Amino acid sequence: MAGDIRGLLDAVGAQRVHIVARDIGLMVGYALAAQWPERVASMTMLDVPLPGTGAWEQAKGDPQTWHFGLHRQRDVAETLVTGREYDYISTFYRARLRRGPGTLRRADGGQAADARTGLRRGAGQRGHDSRHGA
Fold first, then answer.
1. What is the rounded CA–CA span in Å between residue 71 and residue 82?
2. How many percent of the chain have pLDDT more than 90?
3. φ, ψ dihedrals at 45, nearest 5°
4. What is the enclosing helix (H) or strand (E) of 57?
5. CA quadruple 110, 21, 30, 131: dihedral sign
6. How many domains, in total, are found in the chain?
7. Cβ distance 98 to 121 under 8 Å?
8. Bridge partners, residue 18, by sequence
9. pTM of the model
10. Are the beta carbons of 41 and 17 closer than 8 angstroms?
């Protein structure tokens, strides 16, 4: 994916950029900066530690990151969640907003849950290219 971003930078003629990477996108941004440091003027990283660090190992043991393992299992998340995407995604928002069931309104961020419907098959698996739908 970092190579795809580099290709995009080439296509739009951007020589050096400021990267803001959040959540799993941090890994892609970091890969871009590590492989092509001359293309990255600065990088801001939010919401997830880098793999291979002590903070990453600690986060993997945190019960609130259970979904990472779920999404690494081929077809399991899709089988369990398809048709109930709003229910699934809104649980994350409620936990982070510290609200109980039934308290998350669409105006509070439920639109994001609606926008994330149709989980991609294998999106959390290494080496899988979800663009080809297999």
1. 13
2. 27
3. -115, 130
4. helix 54-60
5. positive
6. 2
7. no
8. 42
9. 0.52
10. yes
**Nearest 10 degrees: CA dihedral of 124, 125, 127, 129?**
-60
Residue type, 108: D
**Cα dihedral angle (65, 68, 19, 41), rounded to 10 degrees?**
90
- Span 40-99, pLDDT tens digits: 999 998 877 888 888 888 887 777 777 777 777 888 888 888 888 777 877 777 776 665
Domain encompassing residue 77: 62-122
Residue with token string 């092509």: 36
Q: Give yes or no for residue 35 having a pLDDT over 90.
A: yes
- Distance (Å, whole) CA 57 – CA 49: 9
Same domain assignment for residues 39 and 86 = no
| Contact call for residues 110 and 99 (beta carbons, < 8 A) | no
Q: Using pLDDT thresholds of 50, 70 and 90, give the confidence band for residue 104.
A: low
Q: Tell me the one-letter amino acid at 85.
A: E
CA end-to-end span of the chain, whole Å? 18
Mark which of 10, 26, 50 sits at the end of a domain. 50
Could you say which DSSP state residue 118 is in? S
